[in-house]
Specification:
By secondary structure, the protein is mainly alpha-helical. It folds into two domains: 34 residues; 42 residues. It contains four helices and two strands; from the N terminus they run ββαααα.
């Protein structure tokens, strides 16, 4: 099923500048997020790693502190959700657990 975004709150002004309401912008961002998520799921359907797991794996590439609580705070999700993803990754092999630095 292809993604289709609504542009009901977007209009052109007289000088051809796009004008959008704040609510319309938020709606478009949400719809775009879901569309990109759907496309990503379709692209990676044959892989054993979910989108959430992929996000956990990508985090250390951009950040030095990659503890479960730090990743959860940066993603605005619960520590338990990230821990579940990390545990699944530990079971598959792409990550390893290490002792915290003193």
């Amino acid at each position: 099923m292809p993604c289709e975004a609504s542009i009901s709150d977007i209009r052109l002004s007289l000088d051809n500048v796009i004008v959008i309401t704040f609510e319309g912008l938020i709606d478009e961002l949400r719809l775009s997020f879901h569309c990109v998520t759907q496309i990503s799921e379709e692209l990676h359907a044959d892989e054993p790693i979910s989108i959430g797991m992929r996000g956990v794996l990508e985090y250390p590439l951009r950040n030095s502190d990659a503890t479960v609580p730090t990743i959860a705070r940066s993603r605005h999700v619960s520590r338990q959700l990230i821990q579940t993803l990390v545990n699944a990754l530990l079971g598959q092999g792409p990550v390893c657990a290490c002792a915290p630095a003193d």
